Amino acid sequence: MNRLDGKVAIITGAAQGMGAEHARRFVAEGAFTVFTDINAEAGAALEAELGERSLFVRHDVGSEDDWAHAVAKAEEKFGPVSVLVNNAGILGPGEKAAELSLAAFETVCRINQTSVFLGTKHVVPSMIRAGGGSIVNVSSISGIVAIYGTPNVAYAASKFAVRGITKQVAIEYGEHKIRANSVHPGYIRTPMMTAALDEEQIGIASGSVPIKRVGEVEDVSNLVVFLASDEAGFITGTEYIIDGGLTAL
């Protein structure tokens, strides 16, 4: 407990699912936590649950104006931001390249990739004022390897891009004591997974993982908390795969 004591964090896509678990863990670990989402109803409910160390801000992560607003609200309520978790993301239509519309491709990249750039752009000045900080970008194993049998070129493009943005930011802002790392989950039981797969399909996915289960949101939050904490003070510019050994096959 208190591994994030006194830190001010912004977590995107956090009204439900994996992001909500991150928000719960951050508050439990002592962080002042601003969490954002486009789902205002779910966000308000989670804010009521988390209490006075939290603040919900409705936020379109692809909007530069919304990013400026979110950072301003965080600083107004809690002070300069020292942790950013770019968690928001969408899966997209799952179509092969020749069948995918440009509009669909751009929508996925806007939410998954452009949001990471905008978050970095608007939070870094606040982190410099804070004396440093940690950026944790949630990518995917689809940002490490291509996944056979699951066509989604837009998702893959956006998640590989997150990995590259992370490394570049790490070297650009290391002198300001700002670290940046990416997290690459495999099969994790989230609303996104259960919307796409039924229990039989989840069972098949579990069988393909060396440790014979899918991950839980708590597994990912354990890693995100570590990377946000001072325990990871000499770790930057790298990627952490959390997939039960799937990509080791």
Report what the structure shows.
The chain is α/β, with parallel strands linked by helices. The chain has a single domain (8-242), classed as 3-Layer(aba) Sandwich (Rossmann fold), CATH 3.40.50.720. 46% of the residues lie in helices and 15% in strands. It contains eight helices and seven strands, in the order βαβαβαβαβαβαααβ. The protein has helices at 17-28, 40-50, 64-77, 102-130, 153-173, 191-196, 199-207, 217-228, and strands at 8-11, 32-37, 54-58, 83-86, 133-138, 178-185, 239-242. Strands 3-2-1-4-5-6-7 form a seven-stranded parallel β-sheet, with helices on both faces. The protein is globular. It starts with 7 loop residues before the first strand and ends in a 7-residue tail after the last strand.
